[in-house]
Amino acid sequence: MSSARSTATAPVSRSRLRDPVVIGLAVVSVAALAGLALSLRPAPVTNAPPIRFVMYAPDSLRPFENYPWPAAISPDGGTIVYSVQPAAGDAMLYALRTNQLEGRPIPGTANAFQALFSPDGEWVAFEVNGAERKVRLDGSAPVKIADGGGSNGADWTINDELVVGATAAMNGLARVSTAGGRLAQFTSPDSAAGERQHVWPVALPDGKHVVFTIWKGTLASSQLGLVSLDGSAHVSLGVEGIRPLAVLDGHVVYLQADGAVMAVRLDVGGKRLAGSPIPVHDPVPVYAPANGNSSIFISRGGALVTARGSGSGVLTWLGRDGRTRRVLPTSRPFFNPSVSPDGRRIAVAISEPQGADVWVYDLQLGTLSRVTHTGTVTSVHWSSDGKLVYAARGDRSRTAVWRQDASGATAAERLLDLEHLAPAALMSPDGKWLVVAMYRETTWDLYRFPLDSAGVERPYLATRANEVGPAFSPDGRWLAMASDESGRTEVYVRSFPDPSSRIQVSVDGGVEPFWSRDRSRLYYRSGQALMAARITMSPTFAVTGRDTVLRSIPTVGSFFVANMAEAPDGRILGIVSDRDDFQLIVSPNWISEFRQRIAK
Length: 600
What we know:
- The protein is about 5% helix and about 45% strand.
- It is mostly beta strands.
- Strands 2, 3, 4, 5 and 6 form a 5-stranded antiparallel sheet that branches. A 4-stranded antiparallel sheet has the order 1-49-24-23, with no helix packed on it. A 4-stranded antiparallel sheet has the order 7-8-9-10, with no helix packed on it.
- A hairpin with a 5-residue loop joins strand 45 and strand 46 (about 540-550).
- The longest helix is centred in the first third of the chain and has 21 residues, at about 20-40.
- Mean pLDDT is about 85; it is low at about 1-45.
């Protein structure tokens, strides 16, 4: 978010201040009101010791790390907005006032993300279903601001405009009145300078300028930029940064690719930085495959919320009787596990501070070996011939899809380069197709690519809805996915490669579909429950019933890929989360600490 809102006062002439009558009245006023003023005036923020605490929430309403930041905090530090996945139904935004014990749901925010506050703290803006929306924190219904939903950052200016990062067909920053309207692009990336998109805008206190990120294709090459809202050209500030966080006391607070939180003085008039950057907070986790998603949010008033322990869990066999058995003893940030066709090995991605890579665990030998070294893996699965297929950020593209021997002894084979974010990719059982979940304009859609003519893009399902989590049936004739086409995320199955045949599988919300090896069931998560749809595949696909396999599964959830899988012997593999692992750390007056740091 942006900086502290400036409270402009009317200018007063020096000659008027020298008037004897004014001076006399001032002396009387001061003498009469001094005691009252001192008793009512709150202590200056600069003198208040920094406060930091872990936000409490009951187990049934624990926050999870939504994107692109884990939570938002109001300018005055008094309210936190975060995401909760209830036992049943869709995830929702919750609001917690720091002087209260329990948060409350914000109506109309199912599956919302990228929450941020208005300058007065009375409204929350968010994105959902390809639109920018706002909601007052008094129980009112949400209001649409504009089409959008690029999840590339946004900020609410003191002039009641919403400035958003690249969205839809616009690669530059865009703006719209928060009263509603159509987004209008006001910056254009300089392709000759290697600029691809302008993202993560933060409005300055003057309401006239915006700092943002110039995205050049990788985190390491991204730079901070500055632009005036009067329509003049943007400039690069010449410092590497993946996301500005706030502008406080004339300093830009920003994030580096390595997670370092830095600050440097901004000379707005000179359109440049003054001085050298200094660290002002401990490093925070950065989601390497994306373009700036990270576990920190700073309000315009200098309040801060960060997350720790995101997504850690234990690889575990889940029994239908509720019993669990650990595959590995330790908890790590595992995601997207899958069991090899022969049942002997487990492939899983591990996302750690140094990056996300594919590891393989040999169930017989008890060894866990790292296979890839890209640091940017976003999905992995086994091909039918026992090789690994994974997606990662490309060295020459936004996303690349690779195939590699599970031993890691041979070089990976590049199958596909994509210019768009595509965190999930899978190969059809016959090895002829790649299907990817790709972000285009404002929605997540599914695309198919024939491997005999790599790079030839063929839309499979490109709609106004979001389609994610694709999973092939064992025979390759059907593709399961999660879609919010009805306004609620449900699991559907469509025929493949022609998606014309469509069957809804879940009825009370559903995500993360995965198939049984014997083709008799399609599993999915519904809230905190693991469900199994009984299915038949002949003469065509049909759902014959639904069973609750586990009523409460304390597993790490996912949006783009399944975090559960079935082994050839019918056992279910999941990632059991550490109950107290993910936490929101709140500092309502972090600006005190910030001022101490920059004063050194």
